[in-house]
Amino acid sequence: MSSEATLRWMAELQARFSSALRTPLDARGGMLQPNPALYPDDAARDIAPTPQLTAAERLGVYQRQYWMRLLNVLHDQYPLTMRLWGAWFFNLHALRFLVAAPPQHHDLGRIAEGFDAFVASHALDPSATHVPHRAASTTARCGTCV
Fold it and tell me: Which of 70, 77, 86, 133 is the most exposed place for a label (fewest CB within 10 A)?
């Protein structure tokens, strides 16, 4: 494989992998958990299954860790709000915020920028417990997503 083809293959692999990672965790079962059915097509194509886990389940391990890290950063930045609201309600708002304003900087501490304004404008929104099905960068959105 040529150097150019290798770089193109790597870029496509990273795009598929990061697209799945950025898919919000599914909150419909009362827990924040990966739902491979919500992944973009071919997201797990490059991952080999194991006897214990399918390729999509293995990808879900990475997806869950990615989102838990982002949520923990927001917990650390807004500890009082998190305690007052409780982790579940806080995390639902945090997921909505992170879908509307995905991290764009290498410094994870900066992901909280704008969260206070987002919360102020969405806290009383009747759809505030709704979690989008796909990351904001995709074209598929449901009717109540921001």
Answer: 86
